[in-house]
Design brief:
47% helix; 13 helices; alpha+beta; Beta-Lactamase; 3-stranded antiparallel β-sheet; Arc Repressor Mutant, subunit A; Enolase-like, domain 1; 340 residues; 17% strand
């Protein structure tokens, strides 16, 4: 392929036209729309060679051609320069991501912004926060039968959880709560979420019998809150974008939506994807397994050691250069904010 720069040009033109117009592309249209500098006959020969190499194919009812998964792969591999975002896009990213001090809110803003910029389904794998340690705990009585547990981590992140408390009427919790909070903090201070289970057990063992029921209620909520940090989590935005692309999927999009909801499948895929020299991972069509084999996935690592991934899932007929630009730019932006 590399010995035929013009053939590469023809492939690029077919990809560009098909992505833009969603119609099979014929040789006459290519000559009319692109400055290829050769005749229709020459373009037809190039298209025949591309078809022989399995890079384009004729849909059964058409005289035009569309790219195959292999054709998209060759096209993507030759994109050497990933363009920067436009000035307007950069401003939008800055405004949205720097406007909040809340970690979870920033993550959901990020995934929504990526879905808007790319018109695809955006997915974000939470960074592994096991390295953050517990710095402070608060137990708060909100109402006679409501309480709140708050954990502040070394990263400055705050997790909280409100819950119902089954107490006898008239029973005051203020003094026991202060004592319990100090007791739990003594056993949990400086531990990571992964280490906290042992600390919780030791704290409960040290609780006086009369406060045991109250302590168990708070310990259960603490454990629930810390367990969420031990698990890999994914959030996504823009699933409606997939529904708008139904013409790109010959069958139902149901199985694709189910695969997206099935976080285990997505997590495995994102974890397996290795970044190339451009700092991106691109999986096209049949390179993905199961229900995602009709989609393309573009992802980039972010955060400490680029361990977690941010990316998009969409039809194979997509604007690869623009999407790669957006995914990489937002991943880098997020890394910069998280490292501050």
């Amino acid at each position: 392929m590399s010995e035929h720069p013009r053939r590469m040009q023809v492939l690029q033109a077919i990809v560009d036209d098909y992505v833009a117009l969603r119609e099979p592309v014929g040789s006459k249209a290519l000559v009319d729309r692109h400055q290829l500098g050769v005749s229709s006959a020459t373009v037809r020969n190039d298209m025949a060679a591309l078809e022989e190499e399995g890079l384009i194919v004729a849909p059964h009812t058409s005289s035009g051609r569309i790219p195959t998964d292999k054709g998209y792969r060759v096209f993507v591999d030759q994109i050497s320069e990933v363009k920067p975002l436009s000035a307007a896009e950069k401003r939008a990213v800055q405004t949205l991501l720097e406007s909040t001090g809340d970690f979870d809110e920033m993550m959901s803003n990020t995934v929504r912004l990526l879905a808007q910029l790319t018109n695809q389904v955006a997915v974000l794998q939470f960074p592994h926060v096991d390295s953050s340690t517990i710095r402070h705990i608060e137990f708060v009585s909100l109402a006679p039968n409501r309480a709140l547990v708050v954990v502040i981590f070394s990263t400055g992140q705050v997790d909280q959880r409100a819950f119902g408390l089954d107490l006898d009427p008239g029973e005051s919790t203020e003094a026991p709560l202060t004592a319990l909070k100090q007791l739990f903090l003594r056993h949990l201070d400086g531990l990571t979420p992964a280490q906290a289970a042992d600390g919780l057990r030791l704290a409960l063992d040290a609780v006086p019998p009369e406060d045991r029921a109250l302590a168990e209620a708070f310990a259960g909520q603490l454990d629930h809150l810390l367990a969420a940090r031990r698990e890999d989590r994914i959030i996504m935005a823009g699933t409606a974008n997939l529904a708008r692309s139904t013409g790109d999927f010959p069958f139902s999009i149901g199985p694709i939506l189910e695969a997206l909801e099935e976080q285990v499948v997505l997590l495995r895929l994102l974890t397996e994807m290795e970044q190339d020299v451009r700092g991106l991972s691109v999986r096209i069509g049949s390179e993905n397994t199961g229900s995602l084999s009709e989609t393309s996935v573009i992802a980039a690592g972010y955060g400490p050691g680029s361990g977690a991934k941010l990316g998009i899932v969409g039809p194979t007929r997509m604007d690869y250069p623009g999407t790669m630009t957006a995914v990489r730019a937002i991943a880098r932006y997020l890394s910069r904010i998280l490292s501050q």
